[in-house]
Amino acid sequence: NRVHRIAVIPGDGIGKETVPEGVRVLEAAAKKFGFKLQLDDFDFASCDYYARHGRMMPEDWKERIGQHDAIFFGAVGWPDTVPDHVSLWGSLILFRREFDQYVNLRPCKLMPGVPSPLAGRQPGDIDFYVVRENTEGEYSALGGRMFPGTDREFVVQESVFTRHGTDRILKFAFDLAQKREKKHLTSATKSNGIAITMPYWDERVEAMAKSYPDVRWDKYHIDILTAHFVQNPDRFDVVVASNLFGDILSDLGPACTGTIAIAPSGNINPERKFPSLFEPVHGSAPDIAGKGIANPIGQIWSAAMMLEHLGEVEAGRAILQAIETVLSEPKLRTGDLKGPANTVTCAKAVADALA
Ligand code: NAD
Ligand code: IPM
Ligand code: MN
């Protein structure tokens, strides 16, 4: 009798519309595959919560969600009311750091029925993972502003690449590459211009590669790597990158496979000391929020990743198959994919295909 305890956090904007639809599909999967879900809803990590409490989360947020098996998250950010760096550093980035979710795993897969903006690409041609470092690197709050308001004003911000933090993300990526058919790893670097942290990154990649003689590996500077994503996406299998480079690559990759709206992600603590968090790659989409038209597939695919993480591998794969069925049917797609469906009808179609 498997029971999974999930903290459900919609956040802001379209997160409030897509999360309930992800939950709909999770419940359908539980019914079909014979496991139970204990779903606990939380209203914090949202700019609405900030408006009421003057902060993004309660003081005891860690106690309130730290014992759950996973976190199912929507999106956060409402720049009209709370500056993005305040809302994000007060919620999502805290989750990633405090729960040591140092892997951000983001699949880029061309799906049947979703046209790629790249000419001549078919499903099967693009199928890789971006493995993004998720707790350090260029994302830091280390630094400051000097001489504010004067003509001597300047700002400094440090990047941090620890040996521990670099080696563990590289190990995760090499392990993943080793398990895949192509056994190919690509490292994103910029050691020509960023003269301390990136040569260090390269050095650690080279050292780690020695433990994986069966994994073929290469590296590209981030600038030409973005060009190869567009021109030769079939070249990639596992792409490992620092926090910022991984952020950029994990919007570009899904854009090459049609749209970021269907892209999922797992913020993973592989040691399972803390809960991992599953969320779409996209944000709160203020431009379409409240209209009921957001594509729910990124959220639903994230649910599939969460179930696989929780050991419900069969259920996770079945959801992905149901997603493929729905995307292949023009009348079940949402407006961003030129279909007539809305958030709810698209998600219901996935739940039906699953059942
Ligand atoms: P965004 O991903 O929210 O939106 C970018 C564009 O994609 C918009 O035109 C939007 O309408 C469209 N889009 C996104 N998801 C969609 C979906 N499911 N269906 C249809 N269209 C979709 O990125 P942004 O505009 O840069 O950011 C908006 C807010 O979200 C900001 O506050 C930002 O900081 C935040 N954000 C949060 C996360 C997160 O929670 N993980 C990720 C990215 C951005
Ligand atoms: C993402 C988002 C976040 C990030 C932002 C909202 C801080 O873009 O999850 O990719 O940069 O990690
Ligand atoms: Mn991003």
Automatic annotation (TrEMBL):
Q: Tell me the pathway.
A: Carbohydrate acid metabolism; tartrate degradation; 2-hydroxy-3-oxosuccinate from meso-tartrate: step 1/1; Carbohydrate acid metabolism; tartrate degradation; D-glycerate from L-tartrate: step 1/1; Carbohydrate acid metabolism; tartrate degradation; 2-hydroxy-3-oxosuccinate from L-tartrate: step 1/1
Q: What does this protein do?
A: Has multiple catalytic activities. Apart from catalyzing the oxidation of (+)-tartrate to oxaloglycolate, also converts meso-tartrate to D-glycerate and catalyzes the oxidative decarboxylation of D-malate to pyruvate.
Question: What reaction does this catalyse?
Answer: (R)-malate + NAD(+) = pyruvate + CO2 + NADH; (2R,3R)-tartrate + H(+) = (R)-glycerate + CO2; (2R,3R)-tartrate + NAD(+) = 2-hydroxy-3-oxosuccinate + NADH + H(+); (2R,3S)-tartrate + NAD(+) = 2-hydroxy-3-oxosuccinate + NADH + H(+)
Keywords of this protein's UniProt record, alphabetized?
Manganese, Metal-binding, NAD, Oxidoreductase
Query: One Pfam family name from the record?
Result: Iso_dh
Its Enzyme Commission number?
Answer: 1.1.1.83, 1.1.1.93, 4.1.1.73
Give residue ranges for domain Isopropylmalate dehydrogenase-like.
5-350
List the GO molecular function terms.
D-malate dehydrogenase (decarboxylating) (NAD+) activity; magnesium ion binding; NAD binding; tartrate decarboxylase activity; tartrate dehydrogenase activity
InterPro entries to which the protein is assigned, alphabetical: ICDH/IPMDH (IPR050501), IsoCit/isopropylmalate_DH_CS (IPR019818), IsoPropMal-DH-like_dom (IPR024084), TTC_DH (IPR011829)
Q: Quote the Gene3D superfamilies the UniProt record gives.
A: Isopropylmalate Dehydrogenase
> Family per UniProt?
Belongs to the isocitrate and isopropylmalate dehydrogenases family.
Q: Per its Swiss-Prot or TrEMBL entry, what cofactor is needed?
A: Mg(2+); Mn(2+); K(+)
What are the top taxonomic ranks of the organism? Bacteria, Pseudomonadati, Pseudomonadota, Alphaproteobacteria, Hyphomicrobiales
Task: Indicate what this protein is called per its UniProt record.
Answer: D-malate dehydrogenase [decarboxylating]
